[in-house]
Amino acid sequence: MRDAELAFLNAPFEADGWLTALRQLSHATGSAITQLCGGGAGPGLTFNYFSEDRHDPHGHLVNPQLYGPENWRINCSTGVARSIQYERHYAAYRSANPCGFYDDAVSDLDLPYGCQSPLIFEADGALVGLALLRSSRDGPCSPEVVDFFAQVARQAHRAVRVEIALGQARGEDMLAGLASSGEMTLLLDRNGRLVAMTEWAEAIFDAPFGLRLDGLAVHLADPREDNSFKAAMMRLLGGDELGGPVVHEGRAGRSEERPDGLWQLFLTRLPNRHDLLGVEAQLALTLRPLLPA
User: Fold this and answer.
1) pTM passes above 0.85
2) Domain range annotation of the chain
3) Model confidence at 140, in pLDDT bands (50, 70, 90)?
4) CA–CA separation, 46 vs 37, rounded Å?
5) End-to-end CA distance of the chain, in Å?
6) What CATH class is the domain 2-167?
7) What is the 3-state secondary structure (H, E, C) of 68-86?
């Protein structure tokens, strides 16, 4: 067990640390696969990593439809971070909900057993989860396996928090040069969540037509401007790193009094870096005041 715990505690500091930790946990528990996944609300996942490749000719493991309401693994979670769910909880969810689509996928993959823990469970729906996926040969989780998993999950939770803190610290370092410039700049991760911001940017959240926070997710107050902002994020992050778009320019803070907006908006894609959990700054959002027309 100690090797698995140490592997997770070291994961934020090593290039392949998370994969190594998943493999250590799989080996220590005699489980076919271990999984680390996460993202925001909705059926899609931002990241989804496995200790080993599973023979999956139908693509079940990466099918976003299988991470919806029929998935008894995800949906039996209590909503309490670091809680533990296993076969008893899976059976309770299956007895009360239609799960045939997911059951068929589990049968194809031969992964009917296991246990899991939501390491991070935020009010805005952000989730990071760790799971054992066990085959028919592995069998259901014994009490000893569940206890072992719970102990390792505590260290995995600490490691995820360290990874998030490191991402925020690097973001603050990136903004250090703007501290006295008066620039209103925010750094966002690939999900549009706030990583760091200049002191001057804080005032935009108090402006009637400025920015809003939903948990850590950054939104423009005007729904139409926010839709355009989110589309620009997807376009920048989805583009080719060398030949794709790097900057989006727009306006923010439109109102009847200021139909052209209060700020000129610049959204810039930052240089790409290895970011397994999606906590590093990927975008810089800068707002500059516009003079009244």
Assistant:
1) no
2) 2-167, 179-289
3) very high
4) 8
5) 67
6) alpha beta
7) CCCCHHHHCCCCCCCCCEE
